[in-house]
Amino acid sequence: MSLIRVLVVAMLGAALLVASPLSAQQAPAQNPLDVVPEKMPFDLPYGAPISLERAQAAIAVVVAEAKKRDWKMNIAVVDSGGNLVAFQRMDGAQLASIQVSEHKARAAVTYRRETKVFESGIQLSQLNYMLSLDGMIASRGGIPLVENGKMIGAIGCSGGQGSQDEVVCKLGAATINK
Predict the structure, then answer these.
(1) Does residue 21 sit within a domain?
(2) Contact between 117 and 141 (Cβ < 8 Å)
(3) C-alpha span between 113 and 4 (Å, rounded)
(4) What does each C-alpha distance from 178 to 45, 51, 67, 109, 146 come to in angstroms?
(5) pTM for the structure as a whole
(6) Is residue 46 part of a domain?
(7) Cβ–Cβ < 8 Å for 143, 114
(8) What is the 3-state secondary structure (H, E, C) of the chain?
(9) What pLDDT sits at residue 65?
């Protein structure tokens, strides 16, 4: 008798386990990737390329701030087409960051947004599809340079932690983005 009772209880338990998800079903949540924005995000037109003089001025601001903080940075400025206009490697800045600073600047101008957007998208929002985008870099410190509502280039800084790169890079960008 106790074997039958155990089997009945087991069968009832199994039935409840199978039935409970069916009765508790709710409307599926909307996938955030399926949201269709009304306007195009980051819809900033490309403008005439930044001049060498202005690119060097932005770099000078970054170098001055980095020296105050004893940070060793690589700084790259690209034009509106993603072509390198100016670059500076501070004494002692790590060699790997030469290419990284250029990559950040190119990604910022190509995608018309700060590279922090990619870092946040992957790290915080788990939008892993971003990893498949050509030329993307998921590290802050790449910032578009905008004049009169048009993108004239971008600046990329690398050598420290991403937060350090971003701090000095924003100062360099502020010389252009008024």
Answers:
(1) no
(2) no
(3) 68
(4) 17, 16, 24, 17, 8
(5) 0.80
(6) no
(7) yes
(8) CHHHHHHHHHHHHHHHHHHHHHHCCCCCCCCHHHCCCCCCCCCCCECCCCCHHHHHHHHHHHHHHHHHHCCCCEEEEEECCCCEEEEEECCCCCCHHHHHHHHHHHHHHHHCCCCHHHHHHHHCCCCHHHHHCCCCCCCCCEEEEEECCEEEEEEEEECCCHHHHHHHHHHHHHCCCC
(9) 98
What local confidence, expressed as pLDDT, does residue 24 receive?
52
Helix axes 162-174, 52-69, angle to 10 degrees: 140
CA atoms within 13 A on the CB side of 151: 26
CATH classification at residue 130 = 3.30.450.150
Answer yes or no: is pLDDT of 112 > 50: yes
Of residues 156, 164, 75, the one with CA closest to residue 110: 156
